[in-house]
């Protein structure tokens, strides 16, 4: 059982491409980080904000993305619940996979935790893109199964955790970022 005073390092990715009640996506991301602090989560550091091409390309306005290093007294599941509550408070609905949204907060990693098992995480990591677009896991997968493929996650994550090591790939964020295809890196620009 976890000591209530023990805090775990975690990394989250934030993004949005639609306005919320507080304003433009960049205002929403900043407000969401403040909401995290109000929920008992400490925000240790925040990346720069980046403008990222919408995926799939042309499906909507560009995204604003960021990552944050946080410390949480909660385990992964309760922390994920808090993230979902904050998303909902800023108008996020989950009706269409990868649809435009005012706020998306993904739990990217919690230290070196692998959840639920290395085999299940690897299965999701290897899922072809056409299946990714149709299928979502029904359980928490840590680390995020596609973080190593996504410039819009790795580039901001490098700002706050360049030396974090992926527990299954054995690579740092900087190494994974350097291995991204140019097409993934070029679509992520500082705001």
UniProtKB/TrEMBL annotation:
Role noted for this protein:
Catalyzes the transfer of pyrophosphate from adenosine triphosphate (ATP) to 6-hydroxymethyl-7,8-dihydropterin, an enzymatic step in folate biosynthesis pathway.
Its UniProt pathway annotation is: Cofactor biosynthesis; tetrahydrofolate biosynthesis; 2-amino-4-hydroxy-6-hydroxymethyl-7,8-dihydropteridine diphosphate from 7,8-dihydroneopterin triphosphate: step 4/4
EC number, UniProt record: 2.7.6.3
GO biological process assignments:
folic acid biosynthetic process; tetrahydrofolate biosynthetic process
Top-level EC class: transferase
User: Is Transferase set as a keyword in this record?
Assistant: yes
Enumerate the Pfam families for this protein. HPPK
- Protein name per Swiss-Prot or TrEMBL: 2-amino-4-hydroxy-6-hydroxymethyldihydropteridine pyrophosphokinase
Gene Ontology molecular function terms on file: 2-amino-4-hydroxy-6-hydroxymethyldihydropteridine diphosphokinase activity; ATP binding; kinase activity
Q: Which NCBIfam families match?
A: folK
Q: Which of UniProt's keywords are assigned here? A: ATP-binding, Folate biosynthesis, Kinase, Nucleotide-binding, Transferase
The UniProt entry's sequence similarity note says: Belongs to the HPPK family.
Q: Per its UniProt record, what InterPro entries does this chain match? A: Hppk (IPR000550), Hppk_sf (IPR035907)
Q: Which domain of life is it from?
A: Bacteria
